[in-house]
TrEMBL record:
It comes from Haemophilus parainfluenzae (strain T3T1). Residues 1-18 form the signal peptide. Keywords: Signal. This is Pilus assembly protein PilP. The keyword Signal applies. InterPro entries: PilP.
Length: 127
């Protein structure tokens, strides 16, 4: 009975370790689709909010997960092996998308239409 119990514990601990989203080796082995999102061209509007990953298009940033504590929520993006933490109200990517809302399985982004800084478009990224 003890051997069965030890084998059962070993099985669950190995399966729990293999599901770790913060394991560096798993992030390096993960292959992301080359196509990703089809996003409109970069706008030339001026932003007052802080901006992360200005040199990368949003299609190259991949959502790793969401961290929620209290009423605050942060989105974790993977940028070639680096983890970026972004909050609601910050802009991300070359396109300058504004993070509007973060839930446990989606992120709502808002961006300006090309050449029209008064009109915005919304994008919902699900994971």
């Amino acid at each position: 009975m003890k051997k069965f119990f030890l084998i059962l514990i070993a099985f669950f601990s190995v399966s729990a370790f293999s599901q770790d989203p913060f394991d560096r080796k798993q992030r390096e082995q993960t292959e992301y689709p080359k196509e990703g999102l089809t996003l409109p061209p970069v706008s030339t509007c001026v932003y007052s909010e802080p901006r992360l990953a200005e040199e990368r298009p949003l299609a190259q940033l991949h959502i790793v997960g969401v961290v929620q504590y209290g009423k605050q929520a942060e989105v974790l993006f993977n940028d070639d092996g680096h983890i970026l933490s972004a909050q609601v109200g910050q802009r991300i990517g070359k396109e300058g998308y504004l993070i509007e809302k973060v839930s446990k399985n989606s992120v709502m982004l808002q961006g300006y239409k090309v050449g029209q800084c008064e009109q915005t478009t919304s994008i919902i990224m699900r994971f």
